[in-house]
Amino acid sequence: MPNIDDIKSVLNISNGPSLRSNYVVTIVPPRAFLGLGGGISFSGAGKGLLSLLAMKQLSMLAQNASLPGRTISTTPHRIYGTVREMPYGVLYAPITITFICTNIMVERAFFDLWQQSIVYPKSNYMNYYNDYVGRVLVQKVDNAGWSVGSVVGEAISTFILEEAYPKVVQEQELAYGSKNEVMTLTVEFSYARWRSSLDYALDALTVTDPASSGLGVTSGRFNIDTGLQLSV
Questions:
Q1: Most Cβ neighbours (<10 Å): which of 96, 129, 132, 221?
Q2: Structural domain harbouring 37
């Protein structure tokens, strides 16, 4: 059993324990949603407002978030009398993010419009998959300031949810007795897979053009202040 000095030494080398309150969430809606091509486009002030919400305002208002997990699907397989759980696939559970709502409720409007770009409300027609999926970045930020260790830690702890879209926009309760309570909006995101920024860095060693990997990313760099920067 390790003694207290060994534990302190490990924590000191690693800039202390990780704090749950230090994180950054970035919502990257689909290109078509921002008027950058595809079947859905918004123009004028609407496009500018939605772009701002996606890249800045929603990030600041993310009250709660989760780092994604991964489950290996298995099936029993008997080999010489011993039953082993053999993997055959991988599952990614949806994640939920809770946002603080501003007084004009543009956060709710943003996700309502995103969902309407998936299924048209009047006709119930489905849009093309590539026209409504985006990305969600969840970054566990270092809590001790810049250091070599923090750069490595943030590279490992930045998760990119690929082909993400708001599957569920939960109902928001209203009540006369909740006069001083802040309204929040909880959104459940479905996605195809997640990868860390370290995965992208390793890919860059072998892929000269990231766009050719099918990730929809044309360029990328990691910045200690703002996290992983992706050009869409």
A1: 132
A2: 20-68+94-196
